[in-house]
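Chapter review: from sequence to fold.
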Amino acid sequence: EVQLVESGGGLVQAGGSLRLSCAASGLPFDDYGIAWFRQGPGKEREAVACIRRPDGSTKYRDSVKGRFTISSDNENMVDLQMNNLKPEDTAVYYCAADIGSGLGFVYCSSSDFYHYWGQGTQVTVSS
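The token string follows.
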């Protein structure tokens, strides 16, 4: 059974940093995509960043480019380093996995191909 568990959320002032982690278990093989999505208050869920294992290719939404970095040092962990945080980054952040299809990374902005989800972690950025 695939399980994803996020950690690292919290409250930070604008301009600060947080590092989110997504611990994955039960993955059948090291060929999958992981994405970080977020959903802010009153907003639709949106993809923030995607990474493809095992080659490590990455994609980002425009609003976080240069501030967020998605990385994966091993097949069981994907991190999201968030720097220069802004109040508009306030949201519940979820990690999600696409196992085997490869389409999750291709269509990074869509949640359609991500079938495994964590429970989410709250990130709050104060102004």
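Two observations follow directly from the output. DSSP finds one helix and eleven strands in the chain. The chain has a mean pLDDT of 94.
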